[in-house]
Specification:
The protein has four helices and eight strands, in the order H-H-E-H-E-E-E-E-E-E-H-E. The chain is of the alpha+beta class and 213 residues long. Strand 3 and strand 4 form a beta hairpin. The longest helix has 34 residues.
């Protein structure tokens, strides 16, 4: 028994070496655990940055009549682009559910007999939108809101009759290029009447393309 005790006996140097090794192992696991916990806590508690984008936007109004489609779409599109256009800017606040005010200078030319009447307007749409099917490369969105239109040649005075309502949808590419296709609702008509009227008589659709900066 005494022989077994001598075999298991460790010198002070051996004891110190063993304790030192165990201490380093314990220290390694402690530091590793603390670092991992710190990173996990930072990831979980770090608030998501507020989504804010702004940029220029360009567009035009397109007359859509499904009962009388143009014979040459390219020529028809070019003539509509020559007759009207708009340019301005927008601000988008919020990523999935967003608030988007815009400001546009719009020009519209209307043939009046042998003369061409030119109308210059300021358009201020304010929309609330919902983004869905976001896969990074592209995302879809729907939106709705109001638009106030002011004729530049007239003295400004706020008039509720100049307030119109819009619905629309669009596509974002790479979270950089944003497109919107919007339809202005006609006043005094229900949604069912709006759809029926658009199918029978067509209407004006607003197409815009913007850049998110």
């Amino acid at each position: 028994m005494f022989h077994v005790f001598l075999n298991n006996f460790q010198s002070p140097k051996q004891i110190f070496t063993t304790m030192k090794t165990k201490f380093y192992i314990l220290l390694f696991f402690t530091v590793t655990s603390l670092v991992g916990f710190s990173q996990s806590t930072d990831y979980e508690t770090e608030p998501e940055k507020f989504y804010f984008r702004y940029g220029p936007k360009f567009g035009l109004n397109l007359t859509a009549d499904f009962n009388n489609p143009p014979e040459n779409f390219g020529d028809d599109f070019a003539s509509q682009l020559e007759g009207n256009y708009q340019l301005g800017g927008f601000i988008q606040m919020g990523k999935k559910l967003y608030f988007q005010p815009e400001f546009h200078y719009a020009v519209q030319k209307i043939q009046n007999g042998e003369e061409v009447d030119t109308f210059e307007k300021l358009k201020i749409p304010v929309h609330v939108g919902l983004k869905f099917f976001d896969i990074g490369l592209l995302s879809l969105h729907i939106s709705g809101g109001a638009m106030y239109t002011h004729n530049i040649n007239e003295t400004f005075s706020f008039d509720l009759n100049k307030l119109e309502y819009q619905i629309g949808a669009g596509i974002d590419l790479f979270d950089f290029i944003t497109t919107d296709l919007r339809y202005t609702l006609r006043q005094g008509k229900t949604l069912a009447e709006q759809i029926s009227d658009f199918q029978e008589n067509g209407g004006v659709i607003n197409l815009t393309v913007g850049l998110k900066l």
